[in-house]
From TrEMBL:
GO cellular component: extracellular region
One Pfam family matching this protein: Glyco_hydro_28
GO BP: carbohydrate metabolic process; cell wall organization
Main location: secreted
Organism: Fibroporia radiculosa
The family this protein is said to belong to: Belongs to the glycosyl hydrolase 28 family.
Entries under InterPro entries matching the protein: Glyco_hydro_28, Pectin_lyas_fold, Pectin_lyase_fold/virulence
Keyword list, A-Z: Cell wall biogenesis/degradation, Glycoprotein, Glycosidase, Hydrolase, Secreted, Signal
GO MF entries: polygalacturonase activity
Annotated compartments: Secreted
PANTHER family: PTHR31736, PUTATIVE (AFU_ORTHOLOGUE AFUA_7G06410)-RELATED
The keyword Glycoprotein is annotated on this UniProt entry: yes
Name this protein carries in UniProt: Pectate lyase superfamily protein domain-containing protein
Signal peptide, first to last residue: 1-22
Length: 416
């Protein structure tokens, strides 16, 4: 190497060292712009400063590049804020830290890495802004065990109204990708979720999104690849609209589970899903409640909840290679490993319509509907005439009141 080349290499290295810096915040009028560190340090302090400085009538730009997220974030009470995510937020893999520091959902003992909330918010990922949860370490750590304590939800949207989340990518979520709670009038569109394990460990509990205590939430143009519920409505969800979505590998749309807290009244009502494509999922959509018997306690145990799930309408689905069938109703969910008790729940399911479905299931039966003896289900209306199957065309039913189709036999026990 000649002297000139050596010098320039040294100068280049010097330059690198001299400009190495932590994440920075620049404020210009009502725009806060955060740039990532280039020394590998935690970018959370800079991001939190941006949310503090630009919490009202402002724009927060999270710029291009990779941001190291090593600390929990709580950014709530925002008012008329646009978040413009251009880079990638990369969550650290310190399992000990996250399990100890997670922020509470205040339900099911679950926690999150980021609690976000406010009103009149636009959170725009522009189609490329990315949450990378580095979930593989969590899939391997849990190794198929359900609801491992402290495994963090990537993002909780809490106490949020009149807001839109659009164009955001979520890859390798640590646990559920999103939970929405205590929120109203939200549109979440053009959302990409992909949690795929590259080891033998499953992606159990990588739900796409779960709603709680929320009303008028629309999900449009989602692509969800995962190993659990694709989109789920849980306690006290109403007026939920799901349109133009595609689901791969997960369980499909899940109404529930619900009824996990003994003697506690909860409901799910008016859920509509239309123009949905489901590929290699377990079902296209299903409804699940806990039994009426209390065994253990949440998140993995419980039961005995009361209330209702009503006005569930699924239509215009294209399906391919679903493993267990098009749909099920189960009221048999109980503590890990427990069986039976399917007839004990008083949680009432009614007015469930599933029509205009085209495509294939790879086995199982068309539908297995196990309503509780203590809460027979009226208003169940299924039309699966255009579904092709290699299995039986069974529509097995227990305690379905006046079905408008012919039940081929009694429902079989299904624990999830
Ligand atoms: C919202 O904030 C923007 C600045 O980002 C401002 O121009 C606009 O007037 C605000 N809207 C309301 C209703 O205050
Ligand atoms: C992981 O987090 C724990 C708890 O905060 C901390 O004690 C430990 O030093 C961290 N490990 C690394 C490698 O940063
Ligand atoms: C929503 O706001 C209520 C009332 O301030 C609070 O108790 C609750 O913890 C918030 N939810 C979350 C998930 O932070
Ligand atoms: C609830 O979560 C905490 C930590 O997140 C854990 O220590 C505790 O064991 C959990 N409780 C249950 C019942 O799982
Ligand atoms: C439901 O939320 C949307 C925003 O996604 C809003 O435009 C609409 O007005 C809300 N509907 C009602 C009845 O409040
Ligand atoms: C999800 O990610 C896996 C692994 O990176 C990839 O093979 C697959 O094509 C992705 N799926 C979608 C729908 O993008
Ligand atoms: C049910 O939800 C839909 C949106 O999916 C909404 O348009 C409709 O008004 C709701 N029905 C009632 C009775 O609230
Ligand atoms: C469940 O609730 C019922 C009704 O309040 C009560 O009688 C029963 O003892 C509760 N069971 C448990 C295990 O807490
Ligand atoms: C449920 O559907 C019935 C019949 O379509 C309708 O009258 C009722 O308003 C709906 N209720 C809700 C909460 O959407
Ligand atoms: C159909 O699903 C099975 C699992 O049930 C899977 O092994 C197979 O690869 C899928 N076929 C296609 C064409 O994706
Ligand atoms: C039915 O089984 C045949 C032979 O195994 C297979 O080629 C075909 O793809 C299967 N069809 C469905 C809908 O699973
Ligand atoms: C179909 O129903 C019959 C009669 O109930 C039952 O023997 C058979 O096992 C069912 N097949 C499947 C795949 O569920």
């Amino acid at each position: 190497m000649n002297l000139l080349a050596l010098l320039s290499t040294a100068q280049f290295l010097y330059l690198l060292v001299s400009v190495a810096h932590a994440g920075t915040l620049t404020k210009n009028g009502d725009v806060c712009t955060v740039s990532p560190s280039d020394d590998g340090s935690d970018d959370t302090p800079a991001i939190l400063s941006a949310f503090a400085e630009c919490s009202q009538d402002a724009t927060i730009v999270i710029d291009k590049g990779t941001f190291n997220i090593e600390t929990v974030m709580e950014t709530v009470g925002l008012q008329n804020v646009t978040v413009d995510l251009r880079g990638t937020l990369l969550w650290s893999t310190n399992i000990t830290y996250w399990r100890g520091a997670g922020l509470p959902l205040n339900y099911l003992n679950m926690t999150s890495a980021w609690v976000f909330g406010g009103s009149d918010i636009t959170f725009n990922g522009n189609g490329y802004g990315t949450f990378d949860g580095q979930g593989q370490v969590w899939y391997d750590f849990a190794d198929g065990a359900g609801n491992v304590a402290g495994r963090p939800i990537s993002l909780i949207i809490a106490n949020t109204t009149n807001s839109r989340f659009t164009g955001i990518r979520f890859v390798q979520s640590q646990f559920w990708t999103m939970a929405i709670t205590q929120s109203e009038n939200l549109l979440l569109d053009h959302i990409y979720v992909n949690s795929t394990s590259n080891s033998s460990a499953s992606t159990l509990n990588t739900d796409g999104v779960d709603t709680f205590f929320s009303n008028n939430i629309t999900f449009r143009y989602w692509s969800v690849t995962n190993g659990d519920d694709s989109i789920s409505q849980k306690a006290n969800s109403s007026n939920i609209l799901i349109q133009d979505c595609v689901f791969y590998n997960g369980n499909g749309i899940a109404v529930g589970s619900i009824g996990q807290y003994n003697d506690t009244y909860e409901f799910i009502t008016n859920v509509t899903a239309e123009r949905v494509v489901a590929i290699n999922t377990v079902w296209a959509g299903y409804i699940k409640t806990w039994t009426g018997e209390v065994e253990g306690y949440p998140p993995n145990g419980g039961g005995g909840g009361i209330g209702y799930a009503s006005n569930i309408t699924f239509r215009d689905f294209a399906i391919a290679n679903l493993t267990n069938g098009v749909t099920e109703i189960t009221q048999c969910i109980s503590y890990n490993g427990d069986t039976g008790g399917c007839g004990t729940s008083t949680f009432a399911i009614s007015d469930y319509t599933f029509e205009s479905v085209f495509g294939t299931i790879s086995g199982g039966s068309l539908a297995n509907l196990y309503c509780s003896n203590n809460a027979p289900c009226p208003g169940i209306d299924l039309d699966f005439a255009n579904v092709v199957t290699n299995g039986t065309r069974n529509l097995t039913c227990s305690n379905v009141v006046n079905p408008d189709f012919e039940c081929t036999g009694p429902a079989y026990y299904s624990p999830y």
